[in-house]
Design goal:
By secondary structure, the chain is of the alpha/beta class. Helix content is about 45%, strand content about 10%.
Length: about 260
């Protein structure tokens, strides 16, 4: 997305605080920085984007999330346009990293939407055959101690497509994380995030995925302040103690 986000992710990976990093293949720093992921001890995924305009010369038209969701559920998305978006992003990933992604998720969880998910699964089968990247499953993990507003957002995200991912996993053997943690309003500063993180670690079960959005200071987007707050909390030495107290360790999702 930008150099500050990249720097935050690389530093946390070096600290052993991340198991996976998702790539926006048309982001302005992808081509320059994603190559460094070849030597990082993390899984590398494709972060499917249909809503964020980067001004990249090869980027096809995107639309606001609300319009995309409305059109997806109304059946008005064009399969050829979705296929073109997918192909360009997977082509870019393979061109820079020289391999298939370990997993696929979505910017604003667009990978799970109607019309999008079937085209994604078709592309993965055609492109990779028996190799199956795992998919982000958005059904929420345990919500004990999570404020109602944050918990409601987690359930809304799941309602937009988690059941479709679960059906595909059961029917065709796609691998997924067990449940999703880390959903919140992306605000509140470091103290609020630390409190939520304590609850997520307490709620975590084997195979759960805790997503995060860290960056060092200066990210420059509307979430820059909260990204920096996440980074500060995730980089704290005491996080190791928090995890031990909850019997949690960070692992690669595909190992489960």
């Amino acid at each position: 997305m930008n150099s500050s986000v990249d720097a935050g992710m690389f530093q946390l990976a070096q600290l052993g605080r991340l198991s996976a990093i998702s790539c926006l293949t048309q982001g302005p720093t992808f081509s320059a920085n994603a190559r460094l992921l070849r030597d990082a001890n993390v899984e590398v995924g494709l972060h499917l984007n249909l809503t964020e305009a980067f001004g990249h010369r090869d980027q096809l038209a995107v639309m606001p999330l609300s319009a995309l969701v409305t059109r997806a559920y109304a059946g008005y998305l064009n399969d050829e346009q979705i296929d073109a978006q997918l192909a360009r992003q997977f082509d870019a990933f393979e061109r820079v990293l020289g391999r298939a992604p370990d997993y696929v998720d979505g910017h604003q969880h667009v990978h799970q939407l109607p019309r999008v998910l079937p085209r994604l699964l078709l592309l993965l089968r055609k492109r990779y055959g028996s190799y199956r990247p795992w998919l982000r499953y958005t059904a929420p993990g345990m919500q004990a101690g999570i404020p109602m507003q944050e918990s409601a957002k987690a359930h809304v995200i799941a309602a937009l497509g988690a059941s479709a991912v679960a059906r595909a996993a059961q029917r065709d053997g796609w691998r997924t994380n067990r449940r999703l943690l880390g959903v919140y309003g992306l605000n509140g500063g470091a103290r609020h995030y630390a409190g939520l993180l304590h609850q997520w670690l307490s709620n975590a079960r084997d195979g759960d995925l805790l997503m995060c959005h860290p960056a060092v200071a200066g990210a420059g987007d509307k979430l820059a302040g909260q990204r920096a707050a996440e980074f500060e909390v995730l980089a704290r030495p005491e996080l190791g103690q928090w995890m031990r107290q909850n019997g949690v360790h960070i692992d690669r999702p595909s190992w489960h």
